[in-house]
Every structure is written in C-alpha cells, then in structure tokens.
Amino acid sequence: MSSFSNKSFEIWNGPNVEIVYIPYEYKSKLSIEEYWNPNLVYDLFARCWKSSIFIAVLYVITIRCIENLMTNHRPFTLKKCLFLWNAALAIFSTIGMLRSGEEFFYVVLNKPFTHSICYSINPNEPVAFWACAFALSKVAELFDTIFLVLRKKKVIFLHWYHHVVVLIYSWNSAVEVTAAGRWFIFMNFTVHSIMYSYYAFASVGIRFPKIISMIVTILQTSQMLIGVTISCIVYYLRSKNIMIPCQQSYENLTLCFSIYLSFAILFMNFFIKNYLSRKEKKKLQ
Q1: Among residues 73, 159, 162, 192, which one is catalytic?
Q2: Is 237 exposed, middle or buried (0-12, 13-18, 19+ CB in 10 A)?
Q3: Which pTM does this prediction carry?
Q4: Does residue 2 lie in a domain region?
Q5: What is the residue range of 241's domain?
Q6: Residue 19 lies in a domain
Q7: What is the pLDDT of residues 194-235, one digit of tens each?
C-alpha cells in the first residue's frame, strides 16, 4: 500500500522495494490481470533476479552444444512450429503493447516528460502485470535461437548477445521497477509485435519487399538510440538533483546506458553491413 502521496506521485512500500510511481488506474482489467500480486512477484524478483545470469549462461552453452550436434545432421524445416511460435509472440507482444500503452500514453500526454522517466508504473495495476510478463518473456524468447540452430542458420553475435543482456537487465530492472522501463517496455512490445508478425509470415514463405526488413531494423535501432538518450537524461536529472526522488539507481542506470549504447552500435553496424554495404557492392559490379 502507499505510504506517501502528492499530486505528482505516490510511494508504494513492497517487501523488498520502495516504488515512486504515477498513480494511474485502469478503467477495466482482463481476467488474467485480476490474479496480479505485486508483493509476491517483486519479492520473487528481489530474491531470484540473479538466476537470470545462470539462465543466460545455460542458454549459451546449450546453443553451442546443439550447434555441435547438428554438424552432421540435416537441418530441420520446422515451418509450422516456427510460424506458431512467432505468431504466439506477435500476439503476446501486441496485447502487451496495447495494455501497457494505455498507461504509457496517459503519462506521456498528461505528465511532464521528466515524470515519465523518473516516476515508475503503478505496482498494483495491469501495467505492472505486463511489465512482469515482459521480463519473463525474455526467457521464452531464448527459444528463437533454438529454432535457428535446429535449422542450421547462422547465429550472429548480435543475436545471442541481445537475448542474454536483455534477459539479465530486464530481471535486474524488475527488482527496483525502474521508471524509464515504462518507455523501454512499451517500445519493445511495439517493435516485437511488428517483428514477430514479420517473422511469422516469412516462416511460411510469404516474401516481403526488402524495405520491410529494413524498417524492422530501423525500428530496433531507433529503440536503442532512444534508450541511450533517456539514460543520459535520467543521469543528468539525478546528478543535478533536478528530480528527487527518481526511480532508478545509479547501478541500474550505468547498466542501462552501457547496454543500450552497445546495442545501438551493433544494430547500426548490422544495418550498414546488410543494407548499405550491399548496395555499394552492387553499384561497383
């Protein structure tokens, strides 16, 4: 329950966390959202978030083992399974985008920008349920790579690094319910709703113009650049004591900036190599 409130924010004291949040309340809830228990979930993340590191290490080892096992084996097609998998993630991401988007747009349109990155989500509302679902979905998304290696597709560094780091950072952020996560979660749900829809159709042989895959990569890269920008702004607000309190620790902020910066560099490099460099090669030919 809240122990303090003013017009801009309230403070919720959980079992292992104190959350400064914007008190937005949803007009209606989905049946699954009724089961949300913030005390139980935040206590679980506080005690178990480091398990994400173990899961990440196990993931990398598993991928390498499967790659070795597939060396002398024909690639699996898995067309139907791949379609269902991508379609399921697309639907999940779309619902997450819509449900978290309700709170996101309320805050963005009705509150100062600084509030949206320093005052967190209401821990008792559906947006918190979907933030938790977002963090847990990063474990499920590791199976993207399983499909790649079983089909003997190349797993580039960006792919597995992205999965590993997002998993660990999401679980770490869930411990303190970082305010900027409001932006990151909504952006990720939005991009993934498009990306997994694209993958689902592509998995059954539907071909799109190359511009579509370029747009997906541009959206991913833009997401990373926004993450870097928000991290810098939060640091400025905190270091200058402009926003006190601000729901993001310096430790998490440092991790956030480092991750998004590395992602931005890697995605821009991927875009240049896969789209711009190829155009130059074709011109030379």
Answers
A1: 162
A2: middle
A3: 0.92
A4: no
A5: 38-275
A6: no
A7: 999 999 999 998 988 989 999 999 999 999 999 999 999 999
